[in-house]
Every structure is written in C-alpha cells, then in structure tokens.
Amino acid sequence: xxxxxxxxxxxxxxxxxxxxxxxSFIALFKKRDDKKTGIYxxxxxxxxxxxxxxxxxxxxxxxxxxxxxxxAFLQIALFSTLVLxxxxxxxxxxxxxxxxxxxxxxxxxxxxxxxxxxxxKQFFIAAIALALALIIPFFVHxxxxxxxxxxxxxxxxxxxxxIVLVLGQVTHGSKISYTIAGITxxxxxxxxxxxxxxxxxxxxxxxxxKEIIIxxxxxGLHVLILVASRDLGSSIIFFIGYLFxxxxxARNYLYLLLGFVAGAGASVLGYQLFSHVRIRVQxxxxxxxxxxxQGYQMAQSLFAISNGKWVGTGLFEGTxxxxxxxxxxxxxxxxxxxxxxxxxxxxxxxxLNCFFVFLKIAMDLEDIFYRLVSCGLAVMxxxxxxxxxxxxxxxxxxxxxxxxxxxxxxxxxxxxxxxxAIMQGMYMxxxxxxxxxxxxxxxxxxxxxxxxxxxxxxxxxx
Amino acid sequence: MKNLxxxxxxxxxxxxxxxxxxxxxxxxxxxxxTGIFFAILFLSMIGYYAYYVHENSRDMINNSYNSRQQLLTxxxxxxxxxxxxxxxxAETLTLGDGKEYRNYPYEDLFSHVVGFxxxxxxxxxxxxxxxxxxxxxxxxxxxxxxxxxxxxxxxNVFTSLRVDLQEIASKSLGxxxxxxxxxxxxxxxxxxxxxxxxxxxxxxxEDWEEYVEDETSSVLLNRATQGIYPPGSTFKxxxxxxxxxxxxxxxxxxxxxxxxxxxxxxxxxxxxxGTVHNGVxxxxxxxxxxxxxxxxxxxxxxxxxxxxxxxxxxxxxxLPVDFIYNQSKLKVDDSVSxxxxxxxxxxxxxxxxxxLHLHLITNAIANGGTCKKPFLVxxxxxxxxxxxxxxxxxxxxxxxxxxEAETLKMMMEQVVExxxxxxxxxxxxxxxxxxGSAEYNLVKEDSHAWFTGFAPVExxxxxxxxxxxxxxxxxxxxxxxxxxxxxxxFNN
Lengths: 462, 492
Hints:
The structure holds two protein chains of two kinds.
Chain A: H1 2-29, H2 37-62, H3 66-88, H4 94-114, H5 116-133, H6 136-142, H7 150-167, E1 169-171, E2 174-180, E3 183-185, H8 187-203, H9 209-228, H10 232-250, H11 253-273, H12 275-285, H13 296-308, H14 331-338, H15 341-364, H16 368-392, H17 410-461
Antiparallel strand pairs in A: 1-2, 2-3
Helix pairs in contact in A: 1-2, 1-15, 2-3, 2-4, 3-4, 3-5, 4-5, 4-15, 5-17, 6-17, 7-8, 7-9, 8-9, 8-10, 8-16, 8-17, 9-10, 10-11, 10-16, 11-12, 13-14, 14-15, 15-16, 15-17, 16-17
Chain B: H1 2-27, H2 29-56, H3 68-75, E1 76-77, E2 81-82, E3 88-94, E4 100-103, H4 111-114, H5 123-127, H6 129-132, H7 139-147, E5 152-153, E6 156-159, H8 163-173, E7 178-184, E8 190-196, H9 204-213, H10 223-226, H11 236-246, E9 255-258, E10 261-264, E11 267-270, E12 278-281, H12 282-287, H13 291-300, H14 303-313, H15 338-345, H16 355-366, E13 370-372, E14 377-381, E15 387-390, E16 395-398, H17 402-418, E17 432-439, E18 447-455, E19 462-468, H18 474-477, H19 479-491
Parallel strand pairs in B: 1-5, 2-6
Antiparallel strand pairs in B: 2-3, 3-4, 6-14, 7-8, 7-19, 9-12, 10-11, 13-16, 14-15, 17-18, 18-19
Helix pairs in contact in B: 8-19, 11-14, 13-15
C-alpha cells in the first residue's frame, strides 16, 4: 500500500504542477480580473496538494515524525501569508502571491529532503521575512520620497559591497559574505535592490547622455567591486539588470547593443585574466575530462538530471546529495532528479510567468520611476534564474548563484521576498493611479455632460 | 435626459481605452522587447534541457563517478545475457545465504565478447550495463518483491551471437593466438566474435594477477576489435580500390611481368616464398596475391587518390560501434618515400589495422559499397518479457561506389576460383574473399594468416574475418576456418 501511495504521489505532484502552470498562463492572457478569482483559488489548492503529497511521500519513506510537524508549521505559515495579504492588501496581485508561495514550498520540500536542519533554519528566516515583507507594499505605496534618495542609494550600495571586499570572509574562493553578531550576510543580494532604486531615481526625470554617463560610472563601480570579490554571478546580474533599465529609460536599443558588445569584450578579458574563470569554462566545455576536480560538481549535476528523466525518481529515491552545494547552487538538479523533468520545466515556466506578471505591472504604471524599478527587479530576478538553471544543466558556464525563493540561503530568500513585496507595492500604485485617472475622467465627463445638457436645455428654450 | 447621460459615460470609457492604447504604443515597446528577449532565452534553455533528458539519461549511469549505479545494484539483480538461440551467456545466481555471483555457463567461450562484470566491466557487460542493472517489472511485482525482501530482476539482454558459430571459431583457432569475427552482411549483426588466448570469466578475480603480469600474451585484450596487426595481402583490397578509382575505364589493360622480386632504390621485396607469377593482369595480380605487381601499382597510384580512399574507408577515424576497439592507422601523402609506399601497397610497413576494421570493409564490398553498423545487442526486455528497447540495423555509410564494390567482389571471387583461396572452391555455395600472410618480423619468414570474405557471392549473407597469429599462409591456415564457418552456416 505504502509503495503504491509513494509511486502515485510522484505522478500527482507532477500533474498538479502542470495544471498550476497551465492556469497561470491562462490567467496571464485573461483581460478581466474578476474572471481570474477561480484560477487563483484553484492554484492555492494545487500548492497545498503538491506539499501534501510530497510530505506524505517523505514521511512514508523515512518514517520521520519530525517531517510531519514541520509540514504542519509550513502549512500554517503559508496559509496565514495568503490570508493576511488578502486582509491587509485587498488589492494585491494574487498571481505574484501564489507564485511566491509555490516557489517557497518547492524550496522547503527539497530542503527537507536534502538537509532537514537547513530546512528548519530557512523556515525561521522565511517566516520573519514574510512578516517583514508584509509592511513593504505599504511603504512603497505611500512613501513618495523614495524617488529622491539617489545620492543615498548609490554610495550606500558601493559602501556595502566595498566592506565585503575588504573585510569579507573567503568562502570557496570568493569574498561574498560577512558576519555581524553571529548572522552571516551576503550584501550583494540586498545591494541588488538598492542598485535598482538608484538607477531608477537617477534616470526617471531625464535620461540624457549626461545621466547615462553618471549611471554607467556607478554601475561600473558596482560590477568591478563584485568582480574583485570574485562574485561572478552577481556582477553579471547587476550588469544585465542595468543594461535593460537603460534600454527602458532611454528607449534606445543602441545602448543595449553597446552593452552586449562591452560585456562580450569583458568576458574575453576576464577569461584571459582570471584562472577561476578559465576553470569554470573548462568545466563547462567538458566536465568529464576533469571530473576529478573542477568538473566533479558539473558531472554530478548531469548525473542527477539524467537519472531523473521525465517523471523523476521520487523523493528520497535519487542521490542528489552527491552534488556539492546542492541545496544552494544546484537545487534545480535535485528537483530535476527527484521530482522529474516535467516538474522542473513547469517550475521554469512558472518563474517565466512570474517575470511576465512583473513586466505587466510595469507596463500599466504611469510613473517612470516605478516603471524602472519594476523592470529592473524583474530582469534581475529572471536573469538570476537563467544563470543558476542554465549553469546547472550545462547550457551556460556555471556562475554559482541561487534560485530565488527555492535555494537555501537566508540573504537570498530575504531579498527575494522583499522583491516580491515591492512588486506588490507597485501593483497597488497602479491601482491608485487608475483611481486618480478614473476620478479625473469622471470629472471631465461630468463637465462634458453638463455642457451637453446645457446646450440641450438652451436648444429647448430656443 | 437619463438616456443621454448613460451614453456619454460609455463615451468616456471608450476614450479612456483609446488613451491607454496610444500610451501603450509609445511607452511599452521596450518592456515588451525585454519580455520577448527573456522568453526566447528561456525557451531555448528548456529546449536544451528537454533534449538533454531525452538523449542522455542512459549513458550517464555507466560513469564510475555516478553513485546511482551502486544504488541500482543494491535494489536489482543483474539481468541475464542471452545468445540469439536463447542460450544463457551470463546470469546472476543467488546462493542460499543471499550472496550473488555472476555465472558464465560457457566459461571461456564468450570471454571477450560478453566480458565480465566482477573486476570492472568489459564487453557486452559494460556496453549494456545500465540496462542490466535497471528493472522494468510491473509496480505490483516490485511491491511483491519488496514485501518478500527480494531484489527486483534486472532487464535481460538479447544478443545476435550464435553459440554454434562461436564454438567452431574457437575450436578452429585451437591453441593459436588470433581472432575471428562472423557477421550478417545484410544487417550488421555480429554472429560470433572470438579472441584467443581467452580466459574464464567465472574465475577472473582469482586469475586477475596472473593475466595482468603476463605481458606477452595480453589475454584480456579483445584481439578482434583491439588487436593492431599488419594486414598483409588482405590490404591489397585497399590498393586495388585506389587503382580502380584512378583507372576507371582501363584497369583491364594493366599488365605486369613478375620475376618473384621487385627492386626500388635500396629496397627489394619478394612475393610470398619467392613465387614467380610471370605475366599477370590486374585481376590475376589480386587473385594470386602478387606482391611485386602491387608494389608496381602502389608507386603509380596518385597519392591524393590513395589518401582519399584511406580516409573514406575509415583509417585514423572512429568506427561506428558501441564497444571498445582501436583505430587503424595509416598515412599516405607526398612525404611517404617510394620504398615505404611499396611496403604499404601490400599491407606491410606502416599499415596498422584491426580485424574489425578489415571486416567492415569486407562487409561494405559484400553489401554493394555501403557498410552496416556492426552491433551485438538486438533487444532489451524486462524480466516479465516486455520489450524495453530494440536496436535495429543502421547504415553506417558508403565506403565505395556500388560499381567499385561489384568489381572488387568479382576479384575476390577469383581469389577463391583460381587464386590463394581455392580451399573454399566447390563447396555447396559460392564464396569470395582475400587471403593474407602478414610478416610481422623482418628476420623470420613466419607470418600471420589472414582471410576475409563472404558467401554466397550472388547475394552475400554471411561474412568472416580471421587472423591466426604466427602460423603461416592465409590460404593454408585461415581459409579452412572460413570454410568450416560457412559450412556450418549453410547446413543449418
């Protein structure tokens, strides 16, 4: 019996993931909001069902009762998140909310499977972050002065990155974190957001040549510090995020082209200059020829993916723990192995869908500042996913970044949750703008009507 | 009045829509571009991932760094390997105490081709390892096994090997070192593959040290696919093909007067045992295997044509097979001296070839110029008899034109009719082939005996390639083995 449950759970999990993904794309193309409520509610059910079958499998497989308690707390946390958001912000974007909950749950399922202690640690961080994130939409929505703090964002970001470069701990050859009062922080994650605000506040009024040059100097500084800290992944994310913000602000494709050319040149230069870049490229080209050292991680990741095939081995049936850093940089390979290729592809599509929703929010906004912030965050979000998944499946060279909301890592999950909360704030700004517009229009049309009525009356009188 | 009011409200809404549209056109184009840009990026990534999962999931498990292999071995019993006539070639038996051992009922008969799985993995055991350790029995059966505390039976492998032909080949080689390959010309299926000296895979663990220390006989080497030999006169097939291509219309005008030896510069070569062939044409040179005549041709042939022939036949290249082999080596260009060229033209000197490669060329001649991909495994079935994978015949590529193949076939028939292969004459079938007596040592007059050929000539079905090391001429020692194999094949 147990065997049947475990085996069928595997298919259920993949099935619910597929319809979740399908419905999120249906919702994307539906115009009217009131018609989407059904989809949102069903999606919430799928999220809970995916977790139910996953934890059922894990409990039956291992006989660990702790998993059951963890599952209960997880359900409470997610349920309260969904309910509280609805209560505090009736005008939130429910697709963004659902995607956030789904990706978080996938992360917790995999962390429970890979390293239960890390799952518990991540749970506390996420719970606090979720509570914290609850107030962010309000701030973004109400505090108008955040537009004008450009000379705080820029230096603050550079300062934070600079501190890590000078004082940071070296982990696996890169300086990316430092510890304050027992908490290890990875500032490049938070600086991402500050950087987006900086570029947006610099360019929203005017995006002439002068402003672009200033922004380029600051962006270059950020990227250079990150390169010096050997934080390759973050530097590329900053760079790409910056390029697309410039494109949208200046509305000139030439800048994008120029940026890509410069980026390609910098990559070649980086390859020549740094041995750690060459090692990554070598491990990308043929991991099996250097399987004893630099290719080991890549090869193990490929083994995991091939072992998972389309439906996956089922939880606790594969050996994803053979991959070093599986719970942070290679969580996608673990998902691909145990939950299967279909599930993994759906997850990529959900991330892409989330990106589209972000862009849609940006498109509806009228205020250039908010538009830029939304686009910047959206591009950084999606590009980070591209780097981590593409690196894990050997589509591109490995850069070692996390999968937002899914991977283990306090700074990563906190930053991702803040980004999602900011996007909720953006969505609410759109509603306010819309309301103002509607009022204006109503007023205008009232005047028009009055005029018409006057004319009419005049006519009658005549 | 009321009516009017309603109308104008609708007007307002429409205006708002148009407003938004106009604004969308001017402000959102770059955002839409961004969306499309990343959508394309992600779709190509998903495409790559899907392709990867679809293509690679099999081979990865065989990598020794992949711990999933051990996991599967713990869950499943290794599957059985069968011959084409349903005999068990390798099976895993479980002792009373639950310990497993791999049993090879034919002991050393299939040692190289089936291989072993106890001390590393070789042969078919290595090639289809991932199938043998996977189990595809039904879920219900799996649950039953789990309840009973038993392992699941791994998938079974069905090969194209024939026990009868394998036995004849092995017995014919006797105590000599050498190799035999027999295959189906039309499909590329390998029917027998023997390498001598052989070993008993049942006791490989105990005998391992002895084999590794013995450097002279290379017991573990599969000579059929890995043995690198001078091909001797069998290589005249290649030189003849080059001459044919250069003299498409007038090869029948060729004439040479053999006096038993040929001198060029400082080097002098002789026909086998100094035989004097007198006046020979192109076809007789081939049938009688006249070294002097071929040396003469070798010097005349344009080096570019020769070089093209060599690369189109697959020298210095990967062969289309799934098992371990070595590449044949040969370089012919303008830097090769005339002295070396006359050696090459009859398969001595710098020519290095595996029996497998020669066999492929023979198959191509028998099959109208196109060679089939040689293969050993026909299908994989679950323990319950469900078909898991089937391997169908595949064309490798055209090694020569159908016309050239036809001419070579006719010439090889002449070898049997009136040349060095007459021991195959007057059987119940027609046969064609080429003998070789390859000198491996400049001092001694000893030679490796070669034969490669096929039957029946009208519509070739079966092909053989044989090498017997250090024994004498191909006509005397290799051709009789071919005859025994053909006889057995056609009597059935």
